[in-house]
Known about the structure:
2 copies of one chain form a homodimer.
Chain A: H1 10-19, E1 26-30, E2 43-44, E3 59-62, E4 76-84, E5 98-102, E6 114-117, E7 121-123, E8 128-131, E9 153-155, H2 163-171, E10 176-180, E11 184-189, E12 194-195, E13 206-207, H3 210-221, E14 224-230, H4 235-247, E15 251-255, H5 266-273, E16 276-279, E17 284-285, E18 291-295, E19 298-303, H6 307-325, E20 335-340, E21 351-361, E22 363-368, E23 385-389, E24 401-406
Parallel strand pairs in A: 4-5, 11-14, 11-15, 12-13, 15-19, 17-21, 20-22
Antiparallel strand pairs in A: 1-10, 2-9, 3-5, 3-6, 4-8, 7-8, 16-18, 18-19, 20-24, 21-22, 21-23, 23-24
Helix pairs in contact in A: 1-6, 3-6, 4-5
Amino acid sequence: MLEKRKPLQVRDAQRMMLEHAASLHTEWLPLEKAAGRVLAEDVTADAAVPPFDRSPYDGYAVRAEDTKGAGRDTPVHLQILETIGAGSVPDKEVTPGTASRIMTGAMIPSGADAVIMLEQTSNDTSGEMAVYRECAAGENIVRKASEMAEGEVVVTKGTTVHPGVTAVLAAFGHSRVLVRRRPRIGVIATGTELLEPHEALETGKIRNSNAYMVLHQLAEAGAETVYLGKLDDDLPSAVRSTGDALESVDALITTGGVSVGDFDFLPEVYKQLGADVLFNKIAMRPGSVTSAAVIGKKVLFGLSGNPSACFVGFELFAGPWIRASQGDEAPYLQKGRAVLGEDFSKPNPFTRFIRGTFHDSGSTVCVPAGMDKSQAVTTLAHTSILIVLPGGTRGYQKGDEVDILYLHSSGSQEPLHPEKRAGS
Amino acid sequence: MLEKRKPLQVRDAQRMMLEHAASLHTEWLPLEKAAGRVLAEDVTADAAVPPFDRSPYDGYAVRAEDTKGAGRDTPVHLQILETIGAGSVPDKEVTPGTASRIMTGAMIPSGADAVIMLEQTSNDTSGEMAVYRECAAGENIVRKASEMAEGEVVVTKGTTVHPGVTAVLAAFGHSRVLVRRRPRIGVIATGTELLEPHEALETGKIRNSNAYMVLHQLAEAGAETVYLGKLDDDLPSAVRSTGDALESVDALITTGGVSVGDFDFLPEVYKQLGADVLFNKIAMRPGSVTSAAVIGKKVLFGLSGNPSACFVGFELFAGPWIRASQGDEAPYLQKGRAVLGEDFSKPNPFTRFIRGTFHDSGSTVCVPAGMDKSQAVTTLAHTSILIVLPGGTRGYQKGDEVDILYLHSSGSQEPLHPEKRAGS
């Protein structure tokens, strides 16, 4: 008799995986090696920003009071004391009738309470400059700590180090950062029909594309990977090799061998290993046979042997688990909204994840990457999003607004739009 | 007198950079090392897909003719010949009154012209199975080459190898792939006020965050990086070191030193090196002082010393140049559309690129990452998109639809939506 499996909703299966996220130990890394890692502690400002009152422009530091009455035809002349470059400390106090030339980012000298932009002044060789308008006290001065107080949290624990985070870490003197180690994930392919990419095709066989795809997905998700080859056909030896593999990894991903059928023995391997099955059927297409199980603190992901189902199963469940295990507080694929570019009129009781791309023409329009048969491995090459079509009794029409999930792999052929001017 | 600079539109500057993209030589890489690289030739199918007529389901391969008259109460009994697993070759021809058990993906045996799903049959221990419905000829048979003919192009030149492309390359036996080499890019910081992240703060000085940020952006864009430290203050030695650095790289990025002002001498360095300036002012905020120049086939990018302007200048000009130089046919940031979550009522003649994030609540809503002063380095840590506000005489209101550019660094805290069922 065939095993009956109760389908779980995608969201519930995602939550369940996160409850079983590993808690990996922390390590210190030099900033330049921390790209893509997840911060394991809040990062604070080691100094106020700005650390002193500073000028946002090239210009002159003046006493606002001295500019009273200045106008286009009634310039006020002030004696230039010195030039203050960014990074240098002013030598002189600005006293009545004087001004200091100041560079962008430089420290406001004592006595001065305003900066006038260079463009609004003139100077000659006499050592004096002329101001053509009045300044208000405090004008063009960026106050010490106006952006950030010393000790304030600038980036929180759980943030992935992308280039903007790197900038902030560098700015606040964090030349070493505390991150969680990367999870180590093993990949095992199942299926007697599988050939490696370098092997010549034989009748009845296909190439093992899933393992290479998953290894690449794992690298993108920030995991260390170990390719363990193909699982033995023989049950006792499959149980033994799976158990051995689990010793040296945080999680194990198998591809294939999860369908309901007498040739698929992964469920039996799980059973003999004493694994606790979290789910083995999800209300989604493709990938409904995606499975997950736990043995102690180790996780087993059973992804479909079908390339597209394998891809989707990874992105929805394994990827988030890997990111969450590093402490990432935003471990799921980024969601967006888009307008369907084609009809999907056939209703489906399960939620569909259509491999697609998007473009913008007024609004963001998503279109399938090709025929969405789960056999169609070639469409994966053209996929930059998953279009989410929740299950139900009706289909979807072109023009419907739907959710999309971004796969972090998209680029654009277009430079910026012709500039569309507001108000013209 | 201050130099007058004519601002270029962003789009025109982007196009100009691409005209000066390098054409890097090609190299063969093993598939598992090709992640993120750009294909230098079209990749073809080394065999038809599927390579033989195959079964999409677990079931029985039958002669449709034999199932005539089969019904719920009038089953047709067929003798089971053999079991055909995925990857194996059928031994027997299906003849009248017989059927072969067939697994998902397995080859259709000769004689059979339909597959009936396992669920629609029953069997007993007598070596016979029962069919409860009629099959049509051709039913549940995936025809040889129905997805792809041998020799057909499956992925085109100029495509970046993301996991879906890896799957397709593996499936078609491309264990080695031809890609363009990665460009080698040098980074030089300018500014006497700069301290390295490990150095203690001194009065008047700030940390060099730009160089570390740009090194990370470069790595994301697929470049090899060389950090060359700070540029000398002394003009002749700055010219010499810049010239020397250019020898060993494809492009050089400097941060800072590009403003109009007497302390900024990068324009003079360009001049003495005999560089041909492509642009030195762009109609954008921040980053209007972003410059680019060429010397022979080498490119000099002059990014602003202001962290946010530096960031934006990189993403709009340097990133696309780096990707295009590798042959990437989609080198620009992916664009999308979103609804403004806040007012930007002040008009600006230049196009603004607001550092922001987005979320979806019905439609995609974009919001600024924090105060958008170009000084605000901390907002970079919270930026996952750039919000594009074309220049003009009016400002923008909350609710306006605008373009956004994705920075490939975003994730989500939310698992999939509660499933919204169409038609319920």
